[in-house]
Structure formats: structure tokens, C-alpha cells
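Lecture notes, unit on protein representations.

Consider one protein chain, 152 amino acids long.
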Amino acid sequence: MADDGTAAGGEDATLREALAAEHAAVWGYGVVGAALPPDARGPAVDGELAHRDLRDGLAALLEERDADPVPAEAGYELPFPVLSDVDAAALGAVLEEGVSASWVALLGAAEQPAVRQLAVDALGAAEARAVGWRRAAGRTPVTAALPGLPDS
């Protein structure tokens, strides 16, 4: 289904963008987990499962609306090489920051209260995960004043 310019069409397009971000996060968490020692993979597994659930929920929501969900790409370009635990944690933070931006965009496009609530909940959960990854990567500050918005 093409974006028809209506409010629902704009909401659907932004839901597709959030789905694309969730696909990338699921893929990226595979890289994060692979770079961590086995006893430190818990947060990566939890993050991947959370993003799989969001991905699947978004795909189902789009299908219910007769809007075609975007497929996952075969692979994604990493923003930097992941060669250590610190790199893995930094990538975890980048993944969460990326999905946060898509959830903020959905907040701006949401017409339905249920979609708005989905975006708020997902944004809060992404920032909570990002805090842990930023801390593990040694980044400061560990919290974002306005998650999902550009720093400026």
C-alpha cells in the first residue's frame, strides 16, 4: 500500500521507518553479542529479544492496516569496527539511539493514541537499555536529556 498523504498514510510510513530501525537493531545485536564474552552477553540477548518483539509487533500492526511491512536487509553497515567489549557496548548504545530517533519520529506522526503509547513505551525502554550500554562503554553522560533527538 502506498502512502496516500492522509494522516494514516503518514503514520503508516513512519511505522515502516520504525520497523526498518528495529530490523537493524536486531541484526546489530547479533554483532554486539558476538563481541562480548559469554558471561557478559545477557544484556545483548535481552536487547535483541526486546527488538525482535517490537519488530514483530510493528510488522503485525502494518499487516492489520493492509500496509506492507518493510523487509529486513541482508546486512547492515556498522558505524565502526567492533573489536572489543567496549566497542560492543558502544554499538549497543548506537543501536538504541537509532531506534530512539525512529520512535520520536513516530510520536510526531502518530494519530492514534495506541500508536502514540507504543512509541512512548518503546522510546523509554530504548533509553533504559542505552544507559547500560553507555555506562559499559565508558561514555558520559550516561543519560540523554531528550532521547531520540539530535544533540544541539
